[in-house]
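Z., the sequence and structure:
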Amino acid sequence: MRPSVATETLRARLEETLRPLIAPTDRVALIDFPNYPNVGDSAIYLGELACLASLGVPFPRFICDLRTYDRAELAHRLGPGGLILLAGGGTFGDLWPAPQELREEIVRSFPQHRIIQLPQTIHFERPDALRRARSVVNGHRHITLLVRDAQSLEIARSEFTAASHLCPDAAFALGSLGRPRRATQHRLWLLRTDKESRGGVTSPVGEFAVDWLEEPAMWRRRASYLLMGAVRRKGIAPVARPLLMRLYASLARQRLTRGLELLASAQVVITDRLHGHILCVLMGMPHVMLDNSYGKLSSFHETWTAGVDNVRLARSPAEALSLAEQLAEVAVPVAGTERSLG
């Protein structure tokens, strides 16, 4: 399947899944903006906004990050009968405690509101954390869980009583993306440096490897921190929060642009980041996937993208390198290496 066809198919599936769940409402809150450098979560956020706009939903009345959540303000802005959207991603579980704690706090605090968990991967390592999440989620009568891979759907349906549906990652709402630059290197290894990294996954000697968790100083990020502080000051919060809510999208776009330029710098990408894979699909770039610590990428690939052209799943860095060399035959040339036709 061509990447462009896969992109449009998955975008349509995303919208078809959300449309009956969201309508009819014009009072929406979106919880947990990712105000940190991870490019993938910024792609998810922008995809969520794009999907809401495509479905005719007005800009959310309330958006917050982990540090600017305010229960009273959310209740005030949403009113009775509004809809709470919990951000998608890979944080439903116990690997990333802060977003999970916020998720459970909101589910407990708003028992009468409809809540939709946007497409997530579910993964728990500790039985006590799963029991706590199960107790909180199963105590809410109006929550729907959207999950982005078959493995997560199995967990959702075996552990939670809430309605659960398989749904593509929200980043697919961005649609097909053009490459922002020409390739200047043959291969790029985009490898995790955080707790989801699988032990022993390193690039071969001499290969260029990077993660996208570091970013240069940006005035938008500095402005967001100033506004985050202002939101917590009662006198100026009514002015600061709307400004911060509008700034979020601009900040996310800057981070997404950085990630796209990084990926497009290479003929072929090798990555264990799920959104390294997804963004390469959106740009139609050949790439090789390695799994993360608990099988997130392989499960997503098997669920949605196994039939996409020029995408490969490797079991080891050595196999990834071999597959990348094969994919180089269909990749765009590195700038300055094109053969003369004269």
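The chain has a mean pLDDT of 94. The CA atoms of residues 116 and 144 lie 5 Å apart.

Let me know what you think.
H.
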